[in-house]
Amino acid sequence: MKLHIDNEFVGIRLDKVIATLLPDKTRNNILKLIEDGNILVNGKTIKPSQKAQLNDEIEINEPEPKSLDLEAENLNLDIVYEDSDVAVINKPKGMVVHPGAGVNSGTLVNGLLYEMDDLSEINGVIRPGIVHRIDKDTTGLLMIAKNDKASLSLTEQLKRHECNRIYYALVYGEFQENKGRINVPIARSKEDRKKMAVDKDGKEAITNFKVLRRFKGFTLLELKLETGRTHQIRCHMEYIGHPLVGDKIYGRRKVIGDLGQFLHAKKIGFIHPTTKEWMEFDSELPKYFTDFLNTLEELK
Known about the structure:
Layout: E1 2-4, H1 14-21, H2 27-35, E2 39-41, E3 44-45, E4 57-60, E5 78-82, E6 86-91, H3 108-115, E7 139-145, H4 148-159, E8 164-172, E9 179-183, E10 186-188, E11 196-198, E12 206-215, E13 218-225, H5 232-239, E14 263-271, E15 278-282, H6 287-299
Parallel strand pairs: 7-14
Antiparallel strand pairs: 1-4, 2-3, 2-4, 5-6, 6-7, 8-13, 8-14, 9-12, 10-11, 12-13, 14-15
């Protein structure tokens, strides 16, 4: 990947420039790439503090992921559907989707390696079968690709917004409207690299919402994604003043319990990569979610 410096970035530290131009990468990712000589400016290695000059050419070389000996683990995955091309998994709360910094076990990938002999390798050695993700504390349905053909098909459907993804979320506050559409771009937050934020220069992000139930001080929403940006629902809900209940990062109010955000990927639909038939799956809300809804119902 090659980038060029224009007047906007002249005189700014190169690590900050690259972080702005590549919002999907964390500062640590960028510093590691610089340290390992995988980011060149005008063909030469750089220091993070080096200042950008007009017409500098930044070349970014992503290293191939190193082979990892991932352990297959029996995590009693809830396999909703499986055939020779795809699978659908109902992910529990607290499970990370794939290994990452400091997390090499107990992930969905570890469980998939135990349950399935074949998984697509197109997305690298630490993400076999993975075509999309949900957060650690988000529950619900995920598509899994068991071969590269399926992975390419599902990925393209996601890019073309052809998949049907429905979430249920409990948010703070009471809605006057019954439904609405949030269409504001988001990017990596410039203040906190762990968060996403609404940014006019970010990527398109569209979330449709519909009120399902109203409680005193809370609302249960059905959310339909047209795009799939990182933390899209959590960021959009904060933006409109109705953060998710239990969200420690985007919530601006006292966290209830230690359950994480009340967000569940309830339905997912896609075109089967081989048969071309439309497939759709539904899932039940987890018990912690329904128990809390029942508590709110009793308070009405």
